[in-house]
Specification:
Elements: H1 39-46, E1 61-62, E2 74-76, E3 102-104, E4 110-112, E5 116-121, H2 125-141, E6 144-147, H3 151-154, E7 159-161, E8 164-167, H4 169-179, E9 187-192, H5 194-199, H6 201-208, E10 213-217, E11 228-231, H7 234-242, E12 246-248, H8 254-262, E13 268-271, H9 279-292, E14 296-301, H10 306-319, E15 323-327, E16 332-333, H11 338-343, H12 348-364, E17 372-375, H13 381-390, E18 395-399, H14 401-424, H15 429-436, H16 440-447, H17 456-478, E19 492-494, H18 497-503, H19 513-520
Parallel strand pairs: 5-6, 5-18, 6-9, 9-10, 10-14, 14-15, 15-17, 17-18
Antiparallel strand pairs: 1-16, 2-19, 3-4, 7-8, 11-13, 12-13
Helix pairs in contact: 2-4, 2-14, 2-17, 9-10, 10-12, 13-17, 14-15, 14-17
Length: 521
């Protein structure tokens, strides 16, 4: 049985003429004369452009591989006895009474109304155009929004002096959008990669823009190379080449310029360099950020091999990092090589299970364990519960990258449609929002006259998180856990022997065996 679906798929807008062979993905009978709708055929025409999901700038893409064990192989345990975090009284222990708040930071200084945050919204076009909706949505929801890598370096209007950033209107726009609606819960994280560090982005956003939470980035779950985006114009490619980025094909090559103008090359690629992790350099970077003025320093790592996960946890422990985000394979991104997204890295359940084992080993030595967040293919309330439980008590939050963006984009799309309809009738947009969004009434009560100035995508994101909140409250009430801190691994059961072996969660037919024997004598 193949877990993969090579050579065709919605992400690359490709298909096969007949039923494909299960391993290669090529048509069982490849016909001479076929125009080639598969990835191989399209690559014969478009070459390296077919490495990435299509159409660039308009989509986020998630892995299509079926992994042997995922969160569906675990179920949530429920009980009809007692209550934790509240009096075991049927009139008091109702699901709306469940507390979904959490905190991250070495001392719990970053309070959150709900245990989720956005994926890193960096320099991709889809991140740029949806930033305001998601930043405002995070601010009014009391969660964290992450400004990803390469924002300053990709800013067409950025100003540099001696190779360092001195002004980035785009970064300023992003930070201001969040701060205007910030209510004291959640926060904004700015992230840096190799190029950002060279350009002085950490110093700029901390010292000049007042950013308190800064994130070092080792990688992500969707790829194990640096970030990349596509560039539609020769002028843009030359600009970023001059700023020190890797740009392919080389836009300074006259032959490449001729091919681009003729249409043989339709786009360029901007790539970031690979980060090189070194223990001493990591500690120095953390200390430098703190000396610069960062109140909180966080780290994001990807779906690398187990020894790299051990490095991330141990180094974060020694440096007393405020949050470690671990991103597993199987999730998605706005821009990543499609086959890499599917065929590299450790999937989320396995990666989180390894992280739990490593944290336990450090705990027995009395080491500091940083608050951990899990990412990688999660989207709904049961995913949140399971991910919190599988890594309990170390996992404090969940990163919902594509899911949150989907909600914001749908809200934005319908907001535009209702705005056009209302304006054509000479009616107020506020009335349209009240008709459109289920959460409008509570937001109108909360913000009053400012309600109509909320971006539609922010309302959509808030509505989605509101749904997740109630869904999580219901699951937690069923487990009789009335605050997040009470969720633990005992709240899960493995449905297969393989899932039990991977996760360390008891197999369903062996769960509660000691208690069962005690009751039955």
């Amino acid at each position: 049985m193949s877990f993969s679906k090579p050579n065709r798929g919605a992400a690359t807008i490709t298909t096969t003429r007949v039923e494909p062979a299960p391993i290669s993905g090529l048509c069982v009978s490849c016909l001479d004369g076929c125009e080639g709708p598969c990835e191989v055929g399209r690559s014969a025409l478009k070459g390296r452009e077919m490495i990435y999901p299509q159409p660039f700038g308009l989509v986020t893409a998630g892995a299509a591989k079926d992994y042997p064990v995922d969160f569906s192989h675990l179920n949530i345990q429920g009980t009809c006895v007692g209550a934790m975090g509240i009096e075991a009284n049927s009139d008091l222990a109702t699901f709306p009474a469940v507390d979904c708040g959490t905190a991250v930071g070495a001392q719990g200084g970053i309070k959150m109304d709900f245990p989720v945050f956005t994926g890193a919204l960096g320099s991709t076009e889809i991140a740029r155009v949806n930033w305001e909706d998601m930043a405002v949505g995070a601010a009014i929801s009391g969660v964290i929004v992450v400004a990803g890598e390469n924002i300053c370096g990709m800013d067409p209007q950025a100003e540099f002096k001696n190779g360092k950033i001195v002004k980035s209107p785009e970064m300023e726009r992003r930070i201001d959008a969040f701060k205007r609606w910030y209510n004291g819960k959640g926060g904004i994280i700015v992230q840096a990669n190799v190029e950002d560090s060279k350009l002085g982005v950490p110093e700029y956003v901390i010292e000049k823009l007042g950013v308190e939470i800064f994130e070092l980035k080792w990688g992500q779950g969707a790829k194990d190379i640096g970030g990349e985006v596509k560039l539609p114009s020769l002028e843009r490619a030359l600009q970023l080449k001059e700023r020190g980025y890797i740009v392919l094909p080389n836009p300074t090559n006259p032959t490449v310029q001729t091919a681009f103008k003729a249409g043989g090359i339709s786009e360029f690629e901007r790539h970031s360099r690979l980060g090189m992790v070194d223990e001493d350099s990591f500690y120095q970077s953390v200390q430098h950020l703190r000396n610069t003025g960062a109140k909180y320093v966080t780290l994001k790592t990807g779906a690398y091999r187990p020894v790299d996960l051990a490095r991330a946890i141990k180094y974060s422990s020694d440096a007393r990092i405020d949050l470690l985000t671990i991103d597993g394979a199987g999730g998605g991104t706005g821009m990543s090589p499609w086959r890499m997204m599917n065929e590299w890295g450790i999937p989320t359940v396995q990666l989180e299970s390894l992280a739990y084992q490593m944290c336990e080993r450090l705990r027995t030595k009395g080491a500091y364990i940083p608050p951990i967040a899990i990412a990688g293919g999660l989207s709904l309330e049961d995913h949140i519960f399971k991910a919190l439980a599988l890594g309990a008590p170390y996992v404090k939050a969940i990163c919902l990258g594509r899911a949150i963006m989907t909600a914001a984009m749908v809200g934005k799309t319908h907001g535009k449609l209702i705005a056009e309809k209302m304006y054509s009738k000479g009616q107020d947009i506020e009335e349209g929002y009240l008709r459109l969004f289920a959460a409008s009434a509570q937001l109108k009560q909360r913000f009053g006259k400012d309600f109509s100035t909320l971006p539609a995508g922010a309302i959509g994101m808030y509505s989605y998180l509101d749904r997740l909140r109630q869904g999580l409250q219901q699951l937690m009430a069923g487990a009789r856990k009335f605050a997040l801190k009470y969720i633990d691994r005992n709240d899960l059961v493995a449905l297969t022997r393989e899932a039990a072996d991977v996760s360390g969660i008891p197999y369903v037919m062996e769960s509660d065996q000691e208690q069962v024997d005690k009751i039955l004598g």
